[in-house]
Amino acid sequence: MAELDGHIAMDKNLYNRALKAMLAMAVATFIPTSFIKVPYGRHSRPGWGPSISPRLAWFLMESPTLWMSALLFPHGRMSSNPTSLILLMPFLAHYIHRCCIYPLRIRSGSKPLPISIAAMAFLFNTYNTYLQIRWISHYGNYTAGWLGSPMFIAGLLVFITGMIINLWADSVLLSLRRENEGYKIPRGGLFEYVSCPNYFGEIVEWLGWALMTWSLAGLSFFLYTAANLGPRAAVHHDWYHEQFPERYPKSRKALIPFVY
Ligand code: NDP
């Protein structure tokens, strides 16, 4: 019994430290990503080691979100709690798409991805899945009443809206990609307002998750996503202006319609 108590205390201690580190990382990520163009896709450049096909890279680096969930969730104290199971659904829906469907939709003309970048994303996804899944399956105390709370309902609506925007925008971009053809100016819908609606949708999704779970784990993931994709959207936006100096729409913002 004492041994079990020791394990529980150790896990709680590890979890709290990991959570604090994630919050710090969310803030810290903003600084390097504002100065360093993460070298994949249009910003690929030599010096980051060998690369692999983007399809394989996306599958491998996103895979911890699924196998870690399968390993961790059943061992949580709340694993058979219906509310925890319902909270698991949006997380899985996003990552089943990102890990298993999105890679298949990447066109053959897309740039190879450095193994070093894929390895960093793999580690991040392992770490973040531990935080999110351990929270909803073990440390979060969700009652059935939570599903009727304004936070849960608003969060779910925000998450679904973000996911629709993200899926739609990625579809438009993927359909523009043709082998032996360069990049094109995306047009239509939210692309008339911002350069990166796919990133905007992704950030909105994790804002919804933060509301739905009403947790520091969810908040830290939302902040990390914004800190990671916000600067990358600015870099994409500048790149479009450099590539299409005359033709790129001047009124278009980088990430948030009318704002940024
Ligand atoms: P990009 O917008 O850079 O690229 C998406 C795909 O579309 C790539 O295959 C790219 O080709 C192609 N593409 C993009 N723009 C054009 C264009 N103008 N003309 C032709 N083809 C184009 O997105 P990412 O690859 O950075 O991200 C993919 C998804 O992953 C997004 O939904 C994003 O939100 C998500 N993501 C989430 C992160 C998080 O922190 N939660 C981190 C990173 C990504 P190519 O690769 O050759 O450039």
TrEMBL record:
Pfam families: Steroid_dh (PF02544). Its EC number is 1.3.1.22. InterPro entries: 3-oxo-5-alpha-steroid_4-DH (IPR016636), 3-oxo-5_a-steroid_4-DH_C (IPR001104), SRD5A/TECR (IPR039357). One of its GO terms (biological process) is brassinosteroid biosynthetic process. GO terms for cellular component: membrane. Keywords: Brassinosteroid biosynthesis, Lipid biosynthesis, Lipid metabolism, Membrane, Oxidoreductase, Steroid biosynthesis, Transmembrane, Transmembrane helix. It catalyses: a 3-oxo-5alpha-steroid + NADP(+) = a 3-oxo-Delta(4)-steroid + NADPH + H(+). GO terms for molecular function: 3-oxo-5-alpha-steroid 4-dehydrogenase (NADP+) activity. This is Steroid 5-alpha-reductase DET2. It comes from Picea sitchensis.
